[in-house]
Amino acid sequence: MRQVAYVAGVGMTPFGNAIDKTLNELACASIADALKDAGISKGDLNAAYMGNAAASVITGQVCVSGQVALRSMGIGKIPVVNIENACATSATAFQQACTMVTLGVYDVVLVCGYEKLYHEDKNKTFSVFTGAIDVTQTDAIKARLKARNDAIGQPLDMSGAGSSRSIFIDIYATWAREHMHRYGTTQRQLAAVSAKNSLHGSLNPKSQFRSIVTIAEVLSAREIVAPLTLPMCAPIGDGAAAVVVVSDRFAKKIGKKRCIRVNASSLHSGWDVEEGELPMVSSAVSELYEDASLGPQDLNCVELHDASAISEIKYYEYLGLCEAGAGGEYVESGASSLGGRVPVNTSGGLMRKGHPIGATGAAQIVELVMQLRGEAGARQVSGARVALAENGGGYIGTDAAALVLSILTKE
């Protein structure tokens, strides 16, 4: 018989430039807060799933980064699993921890995502993102992106991809151009995503950027790759987020009042989709809703992977918040804003809260737990009871390499 997994505690550092802090310091700060929030001690932990994507490049720490961070705060003996899965790194750690709890293997599991991306040598940072594709197919990927843009009459200059900017910006710009060509989505609607998330981020004390930007300011900002301007793209960042996942029996032991149920959590990988097949995201979302016995109509708030403005618009559609092609109108209508039908990225999202790769997925869970507990302060979604997190990462062929979807509910 499957157990039920609950989130009993969460913790998170501010996101931003923490070049003066070590990776261990960031991880330990979030873990200490999560343990305190759960009301448990280090000795209660049965296992830890530690998510980091870039330490090998940025800090030189390889192989045992999770054990190193935990040992620095006196945690040893327990099984430690180090996870690297692109931008879905700590979301994967969360999904794996929940799976082990539901299978009855563990009662108390720590999840931590921790990352440092700022470095004096920007090329090192760019190389992290460049490595999140099939590096043996870099030229082929660039050629396919160019061909897709040529097909809609919008030539793409990729001379700066991987050197002056992440290659993912060219991928997102291609998505945006194709969406605009097919559905009539406007640059102003892309800017509306950034402006909306800046308002949400201004209410989050842990956000990397706290200022509010208007649609006009987003449109007039420096262009990265048309039609994307700087505020339409997620920044790099440093930071950590931690989550304590417990079984139903342990939740009863400590008191379930502030525990949030993990209704469903799934991990998927992309594949070479054949003609007539549903793409990965569509099939994964359908399976998640079926597993949770819920649908988009039940959602009260969503944290999704807005690595760019077009990413958020496309995921409105994938998640069933609106019809295909209507994502631009959806954000423009205010439906995804605080006070709207289903507020999205109340944390500020990746674009304003920040995007320390390994910490992003766990940080989404932190935000949603706070929302479902009613502890989100000025950005609180009234009456929130059902929340969804979406976190994707990497790029192979024409799709994301990894995708994690989770639904949390307040009982």
TrEMBL record:
Bilayer-spanning residue ranges: none
Enzyme Commission number(s): 2.3.1.-
Domain Thiolase C-terminal: 282-405
Tree of life domain: Bacteria
Top enzyme category: transferase
Protein keywords: Acyltransferase, Transferase
GO molecular-function terms, A-Z: acyltransferase activity
Thiolase N-terminal domain boundaries: 6-213
Name of protein: Thiolase family protein
Organism: Zhongshania arctica
